Amino acid sequence: MVERVRIDHVGHRGDGVSLAAGNAVYVPYALGGETVEVDHVAGNHPDRRKLLAVDVASPDRVEPFCPHFGICGGCAIQHWAPAPYHAWKRGIVAETLAQAGIDCDVAPLVDAHGAGRRRVTLHGRFGTHDVLKVGFSAASSHDVIPIHRCPILDPGLEGSLDAAWALAESLTSRMSVTKPLDIQVTATANGLDVDVRGSGPLPTALITALSRVAEQHRLARLTRHGELVLQRLAPTVRMGRAEVTLPPASFLQATIAGEETLASLVAERVGKAKEVLDLFCGVGPFALRLAEKARVTAYDNDAGAVAALVKAARTPGLKPIKAEPRDLFRRPLAPPELRDFDAVVFDPPRQGAQAQALKLAASKVPVVIAVSCNAATFARDARLLIDGGYRIETVVPVDQFRHTPHVELVARFTR
Ligand SMILES: C[S@@+](CC[C@H](N)C(=O)[O-])C[C@H]1O[C@@H](n2cnc3c(N)ncnc32)[C@H](O)[C@@H]1O
What we know:
Layout: E1 3-6, E2 9-10, E3 16-18, E4 25-27, E5 35-40, E6 49-56, H1 82-99, E7 110-111, E8 119-126, E9 132-137, E10 144-146, H2 160-174, E11 181-188, E12 191-197, H3 204-216, E13 221-224, E14 227-231, E15 236-239, E16 242-245, H4 256-270, E17 275-279, H5 287-290, E18 295-300, H6 303-312, E19 321-325, H7 335-338, E20 343-346, H8 354-361, E21 367-372, H9 375-387, E22 391-392, E23 396-399, E24 408-414
Parallel strand pairs: 7-23, 12-13, 17-18, 17-20, 18-19, 20-21
Antiparallel strand pairs: 1-5, 2-3, 3-4, 5-6, 8-9, 8-11, 9-10, 11-12, 13-14, 15-16, 21-24, 22-24, 23-24
Helix pairs in contact: 2-3, 8-9
Bound molecules: S-adenosylmethionine (SAM).
Residues 251, 253, 280-282, 285-286, 300-302, 305, 327-329, 347-349, 373 line the site of S-adenosylmethionine (SAM).
GO biological process, one term: methylation
Organism: Bradyrhizobium japonicum
Keywords: 4Fe-4S, Iron, Iron-sulfur, Metal-binding, Methyltransferase, S-adenosyl-L-methionine, Transferase
């Protein structure tokens, strides 16, 4: 049923929200103040509408720069001018914290898109008539939108789409791949690092075929489910003074500018601390920079990431870094283990770090710095620290996932 609705504002997921009917109705790609024509969405989505036409456009509406925008699910927002977009993204953090009763200042949004995303996960799937499609998931569906160019990628990912198509074609032409393929490509100093998932076990002939594609596309490394298929060059990235060889599929900040921004916000807040604990350290983007001035102890449950950090920690000129694998959800560091640190940094996955925050709240650590990619779980963990006697300073929102509703933040707590 086609209706005309007025949009009140853009919600935290990037959809236009209309409150006219009493209950919120969500319209992707619509902006606050607009009057739009919408239709109901098939399936069980009573509160969602499909945008058919913009009758009265917002003065903040701009032309999207990508021809796939609105079909490809990779970007939610390309149709909004930068200033209101920045205000909205900062507002996601400010409103989430206010709703959770966390009283603090929120700084203006720091843009950290830089040269673009340095890692991309492409999907390979057969469409109608058994035609292979390689690209991104469609908006609100598992369909794959075939893509040959994506303007938000770092130039270091040049050739990533061609390589992904070639790998998917090579796999699907020689075996019946019924499951979707996930092809993760990371830009490294020595070329593209590719990990293919979803193909299941492969016969030797197919591994040989994949190796040939890796050679043709001059990939630095090709792995399948993290297992090495071919390595031409070590896939390394620079982190401060250190060079880190990436383990396949370990966590990596989405943009170089994002990693550098987060690391420098962390370093400023660590200040002159001599003994620093880096929890959820990954391959060490914070630890390796902090070790230019302080001794660092680091934990993460990804043993491959920790091993990469241990190796990079041998970089001449760095102070000692002790890094060990540890599950911080099940075995958070307890107050006696936290006693000797001047500052603790924690940067958990989206679930947050509830168990560790509880232990920190009971500790005497003078400075705690949180980095988060989820304002809601951050608010929950911040509440634990504040109830434990910490004061929260100005929270800085960081935008490395431009064109999406994802936002990172850095916050310092002191006691
Ligand atoms: C948001 S990433 C941050 C990594 C690193 N600080 C960085 O900036 O690259 C979260 C990290 O938490 C780790 N992680 C996830 N669950 C964990 C757990 N239960 N215990 C310890 N580390 C965990 C992941 O391996 C990942 O490296």
